[in-house]
Amino acid sequence: MQSLVPLEAELPTEEPPRPERRPLVLGGVAGFAIGSLLIGVLWAVSGSNAGANADAVAACEAMDRVGDLPLTTQGDGKVGSSLLDPGLVQRISAARDLAAAAAVQNKNYQELADHIDGVSRMVISLHFNDGVGHRHYELAKQLCARI
User: Fold this and answer.
1) Is residue 13 included in any domain, yes or no?
2) Is the dihedral of CA 59, 62, 67, 73 positive or negative?
3) Residue pair 120/100 in contact by the 8 Å Cβ criterion
4) 139 versus 77: which is more confidently predicted?
């Protein structure tokens, strides 16, 4: 015959308590958040200087395509339209806008933006006999040579 085993002996014993996962989950979430923040900051910092430098280089390239500015005027004090290269005003305006955008992102380009703005004011007013405007032009070319 079979022996009778009491029911208490057949019941499984209790499992040992498992360690809590909460500290591991919190550590993982905190690490992810800190890593994401650092990557975002580094991306923002590296992108702003690169964009500013590209804008400054593009402004200088536009200035290079301008060539030499006319020095002479007609008897009425205005530059003759035949003396102006096609696109001169547009290139100077584009260079001014690009240099201003570079200066907004990186203050190191503010001097370049100021000189190109001086050239732009001279060109737009068509007063090519303005010595200050030509001085701005020379200084802008010198700054462009260093970029």
Assistant:
1) no
2) negative
3) no
4) 139
Query: Are 105 and 119 spatial neighbours (Cβ–Cβ below 8 Å)?
Result: no
| Residues 78 and 136 sit within 8 Å (Cβ to Cβ) | no
Q: In this predicted model, what pLDDT tens digit does every residue of 71-123 receive, in sequence order?
A: 655 545 554 444 667 788 899 999 999 999 999 999 999 999 999 999 999 98
Polymer length of the chain? 147
Cα distance from N-terminal residue to C-terminal residue, the chain = 102
Domains: count for the chain: 1
Predicted TM-score (pTM) of the model is: 0.62
DSSP 8-state secondary structure symbol assigned to residue 80: -
Q: Which amino acid is at 93?
A: S
Q: How far apart are CA 133 and CA 5, in angstroms?
A: 110
Candidates 3, 129, 106; CA nearest to 59 is: 106
- Domain residue limits at 108: 52-146
What is the pLDDT confidence band of residue 59, given thresholds at 50, 70 and 90?
Answer: very high
